[in-house]
Specification:
The complex is a heterodimer of chains A (about 110) and B (about 120).
Chain A lengths: L3 E4 L2 E5 L4 E7 L3 E9 L5 E7 L2 E5 L2 E6 L4 E6 L8 E9 L5 E3 L3 E6 L1
Parallel strand pairs in A: 2-11
Antiparallel strand pairs in A: 1-3, 3-8, 4-5, 4-9, 6-7, 7-8, 9-10, 9-11
Chain B lengths: L4 E3 L2 E4 L5 E6 L6 E7 L6 E7 L2 E5 L7 E4 L6 E5 L8 E8 L9 E2 L3 E5 L1
Parallel strand pairs in B: 2-11
Antiparallel strand pairs in B: 1-3, 3-8, 4-5, 4-9, 5-6, 7-8, 9-10, 9-11
The chains are: A mainly beta (about 110), B mainly beta (about 120).
Chain lengths: ~110, ~120
């Protein structure tokens, strides 16, 4: 079993829909990261959080440390949100990130 | 551009050849990471440096792989005797390991195709 599991693996929605991507992890963490990867490979950090909730524009990330679960929400989704969204955790006591497999999001106009 | 840069962006090589990739981190960042990403998967950790010291290596990093960061600035990743299984995106990231932040900033990646 992977240390970081994301669901769903693929998600297709219509423009304007509310999107939720989930991430569960099984290790102790120092922080959890949500990353966005567009075709061509470049990865952009969206959020780094260790508790509670963060919001940036239409994106919201939450984390529940007790349940070892995080969610990424996108409100009023837009075709330009189409990308792969990756959850990664900084493992406690280590200096590396462990990544989920990613969620491929497609927003149709 | 003051972000992380990688060179080359694409490399096609024949099986058995050696390849070398370069990563230039954000200038004030003391930590540098290498990851490998195969198609449809999330990245996997390969190794990281703090300044010029290589502090951890994944067991994914076979003896055909070597990484250096000679002056604590840019880093190189060399793969000797490439195999088709080495085909992947090789990602570099850097961070400043201060007391409050270790957010990693990623480069655009080097896509390696071994034929």
């Amino acid at each position: 079993k992977n240390e970081v599991e994301q669901s769903p693996q693929n998600l297709t929605a219509q423009e304007g829909e509310f999107i939720t991507i989930n991430c569960s992890y099984s290790v102790g963490i120092s922080a959890l990261h949500w990353l966005q990867q567009h075709p061509g490979g470049g990865i952009v950090s969206l959020f780094m959080l260790s508790s509670g909730k963060k919001k940036h524009g239409r994106l919201i990330a939450t984390i529940n440390i007790q349940e070892k679960h995080s969610s990424l929400h996108i409100t009023a989704s837009h075709p330009r949100d189409s990308a792969v969204y990756i959850c990664a955790v900084g493992v406690q006591g280590a200096q590396k990130l462990v990544f989920g497999q990613g969620t491929r999001l497609t927003i149709n106009p | 551009d003051t972000g992380v840069s990688q060179d080359p962006r694409h490399k096609i090589t024949k099986r058995g050849q050696n390849v070398t990739f370069r990563c230039d981190p954000i200038s004030e960042h003391n930590r540098l990471y290498w990851y490998r990403q195969t198609l449809g998967q999330g990245p996997e950790f390969l190794t990281y440096f703090q300044n010029e010291a290589q502090l951890e290596k994944s067991r994914l990093l076979s003896d055909r792989f070597s990484a250096e960061r000679p002056k604590g600035s840019f880093s190189t990743l060399e793969i000797q005797r490439t195999e088709q299984g080495d085909s992947a995106m090789y990602l570099c990231a850097s961070s400043y390991q201060g007391p409050y932040s270790y957010e990693q900033y990623f480069g655009p990646g080097t896509r390696l195709t071994v034929t």
